[in-house]
């Protein structure tokens, strides 16, 4: 062991022809310099730590007056770093072991965060059948669609790294075109992050205190001539969206309920909406007018699983191993609505023999949900229905609203002649409005 007072000359001494040589500092016991045959020079410390002789690297030695690079030390700096290392080791602290443990923890944390992306956490939330999970929500399909479409930018982001600013930015962007949809999206994000907080995947729910966008309740009621134009557009757009929207006009039922209707739910001239597909989990019976029966009777039995009345085709997501890809319920309503609006405008322009102007020849801003409100409004209007004007309680039953008291709980699947008369009268009004006549059903469904 060569022991001397390390200085600039000893640090710069010639390298050995082979192997390594070690120079030990006489001023700071335990501090030394290792010079390798290739010319590498490394400061180090060595002392007994927890019963074992331990060597720790300080850094590379810098020779000359030029600037140092990262990891290099001039001798005075190296001696100070070494003095601290030796002092820590004397007190039972091993900086290298702690740094390695910290690095290991950081790597594990990063790996855990990578596994717990927002997409993965959202999927786990929807797979949870518990009271606080999303597995049993009636609106699960629609909420999963929002995750796929509206929250796609977050899919690969670790859920713990989503910030309040991220949520606010997303909502502001959505609110520019649809304030109500932005609020529904905020509610969904809150649900998922609340679940993640209970699972200890995040330290806080960053969406908790965000204020929703002010909403103005829609009051749009489509006029009869507007319903007639929508009906004509539906004829042009064809299956599946055309007949589905026509069925919404004839029955006043929700878009999601019509979109996922099954053949097994149709029994002669009634549609029995089951609890699991109805809002609030309360199914009911919808009488089908002759026109509704005609529309349904002309529909194809789609795919190899013909239980769906309406379908846009086969599932895009690969099925489980050994399972065949099956038709899925209608998807792409926004694109279909855009197409329908253009068709309606085009038909209006042709009727006027004018060049197409989407704003002038189309309908004023409307949504598919406006159809349901319009049906209810027109059923109450004596100018529309004449003597067939419908009582408010009957309309409530048709729409499956909460009105009606305990009667709704016990007779929701019973034959209701008032509902049938109301929907048949409304169907006849639509026929006169659109110029379509009901024909006899040859080979109607059993």
What does this structure look like?
With 446 residues, the chain is an alpha+beta fold. Helix content is 45%, strand content 11%. The protein has a six-stranded mixed beta sheet, with helices on one face. A three-stranded antiparallel beta sheet has the order 7-8-9. A two-stranded antiparallel ribbon has the order 10-11. The C terminus is likely disordered.
Quick rundown:
With 446 residues, the chain is an alpha+beta fold.
Structure keywords:
446 residues, alpha+beta, 18 helices, 11% strand
Largest sheet: 6 strands, mixed
Q: Could you tell me how far the N terminus lies from the C terminus, measured between alpha carbons in angstroms?
A: 102 Å
Strand content: 5-15%
Mean pLDDT: 85
List SSEs in N-to-C order: EHEEEEEHHHHHHHHHEEEHEEHHHHHHH
- Unreliable spans are 316-320, 404-410, 438-446
Tell me how many strands there are.
11
Shape: elongated
- Helicity range of the residues? 40-55%
- Gyration radius, in Å: 37 Å
């Amino acid at each position: 062991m060569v022991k001397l007072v390390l200085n600039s000359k000893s640090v710069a001494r010639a390298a050995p022809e082979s192997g390594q040589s070690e120079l030990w500092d006489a001023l700071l016991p335990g501090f030394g310099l290792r010079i390798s045959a290739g010319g590498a020079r490394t400061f180090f410390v060595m002392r007994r730590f927890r019963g074992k002789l331990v060597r720790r690297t300080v850094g590379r030695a810098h020779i000359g007056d030029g600037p140092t690079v990262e990891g290099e030390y001039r001798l005075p700096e190296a001696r100070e770093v070494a003095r601290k290392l030796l002092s820590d080791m004397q007190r039972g602290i091993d900086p290298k072991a702690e740094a390695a443990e910290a690095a290991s923890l950081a790597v594990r944390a990063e790996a855990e965060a990578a596994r717990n992306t927002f997409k993965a956490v959202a999927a786990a939330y929807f797979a949870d059948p518990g009271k606080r999970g999303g597995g049993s929500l009636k609106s699960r399909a629609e909420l999963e669609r929002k995750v796929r479409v509206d929250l796609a930018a977050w899919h690969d982001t670790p859920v713990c790294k989503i910030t309040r600013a991220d949520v606010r930015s997303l909502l502001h962007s959505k609110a520019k075109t649809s304030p109500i949809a932005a609020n529904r999206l905020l509610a969904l994000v809150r649900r998922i992050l609340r679940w993640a907080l209970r699972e200890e995947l995040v330290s806080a729910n960053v969406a908790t205190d965000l204020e929703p966008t002010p909403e103005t309740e829609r009051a749009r009621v489509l006029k009869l001539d507007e319903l007639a134009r929508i009906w004509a557009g539906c004829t042009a757009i064809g299956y599946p969206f055309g007949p589905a929207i026509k069925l919404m006009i004839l029955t006043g039922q929700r878009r999601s309920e019509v979109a996922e209707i099954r053949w097994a739910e149709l029994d002669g001239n009634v549609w029995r909406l089951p609890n699991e597909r109805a809002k609030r989990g309360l199914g009911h019976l919808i009488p089908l007018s002759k026109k509704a029966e005609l529309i349904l009777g002309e529909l194809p039995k789609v795919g190899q699983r013909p239980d769906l009345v309406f379908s846009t085709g086969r599932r895009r997501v690969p099925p489980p191993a050994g399972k065949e890809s099956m038709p899925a319920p209608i998807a792409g309503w926004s694109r279909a609505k855009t197409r329908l609006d253009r068709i309606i405008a085009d038909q209006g322009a042709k009727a006027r023999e004018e060049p197409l102007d989407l704003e002038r020849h189309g309908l004023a801003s409307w949504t598919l949900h406006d159809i349901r409100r319009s049906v209810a409004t027109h059923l109450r209007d004596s100018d529309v229905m004449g003597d067939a004007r419908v009582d408010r309680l009957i309309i409530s039953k048709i729409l499956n609203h909460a009105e009606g008291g305990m009667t709704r709980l016990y007779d929701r699947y019973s034959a209701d002649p008032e509902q049938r008369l109301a929907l048949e009268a409304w169907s006849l009004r639509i026929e006169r409005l659109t110029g379509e006549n009901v024909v006899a059903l040859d080979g109607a469904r059993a």
